[in-house]
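Hi team,

Below is the intake form for Alcohol dehydrogenase, catalytic domain, GroES-like family from Candidatus Nitrosopelagicus brevis. Please confirm the fields before the structure is written into the shared record.

FORM ID: S-0412
PROTEIN: Alcohol dehydrogenase, catalytic domain, GroES-like family
ORGANISM: Candidatus Nitrosopelagicus brevis
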Amino acid sequence: MKAVVYREYAPDDNYAKILKVEDIDSPKPKPDEVVFTNKASALNYNDIWGMRGVPIAIPLPHVSGSDVAGDVIAVGEDVKGFKVGDRVVSHSNLACRVCSACTSGREFDCTRRQVWGFQTGPLWGAYSEEVHLPEVNVSHIPEGVSYEDAAAASMTILTSWHMLVGRAKITPGQTVLVMGGGSGVGSFAIQIAKLYNCDVIATASPDKLDKCLELGADHAVDHRQEDWSKQVFKISKEIAKTKGQAPGIDLSFDHIGETHFNKQLQLLKYGATLVSCGATTGYDAKIDLRHIFFKGINVLGSTQGTKAELDEGLYWMGQGKIKAAVDSVYTFEQAAEAHTKMLSGKFFGKILLKPEGA
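The structure came back. Fields below:
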């Protein structure tokens, strides 16, 4: 079968040099595994980290990709929940399932967990014509949800749902700030917050503001402007007047990190929450601790999520309440171009990668 393979790292981000479409062996299921076709797969930033070989040196030769949707073509003898022909999507958090974290429902805290397609290998990821995963790492795609939307949602709706619902315990009526609303996680965060009947202020670059509003954000602010936080606070004051509450943000959704972190803390109300899943602008944020202890702010970290949370997000997609924002679709042969576009940041939502003819 065909797969997108690289056999050396590209610390200079020269993807065209290393990414090649190669023939590799088709998978055969282990007793607990499901094998399914690749009808659509989605790019994530961990693909970039993998090709750079940092922050960890991933196995070579390597097939990237953590998000993929398709049709089941084979199942292992111990598989009970899936059959040939089922429409499925990957859950990329490979946890041990037996440690105290896993057995208490915190598989995202498993110290032995790996992100499939990033840390796994050699030659075990989504960017191949057929893929294989343990049954516990596969979910059914609800009727009415396309392969493309399921692939675009796999890791990002999981991350966003876990951040807002699992970690931050979002409640109806809150004023929610979604940083980077044009990203995969941000686009889902806007919609999850609206599902909870919250007032949503999204930030994004100027070319993405209208699309944030189309997804359901009540307000959109250019976070590249020097006074972005003042604009957000002004909006929060108007929202507060309608509720008879103090101005400010109840819940801030962050994955931007260093450049905007302290401003978010300033915007939070007393007892409010900031939940973070990443730091695309850098991790060395300078913060004023007085915002945290004096206002009793909750700062929460978040990564991945449970399979149950993925299924909850997919359920609401099946109900038509949440949709994926798909920016563009590329073939395996265009993998270098697709990753270059992702690195540029000039896209909205998710970029997809498909085998020829999928």
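SUMMARY LINE: The CA atoms of residues 63 and 123 lie 5 Å apart.

Thanks, M.
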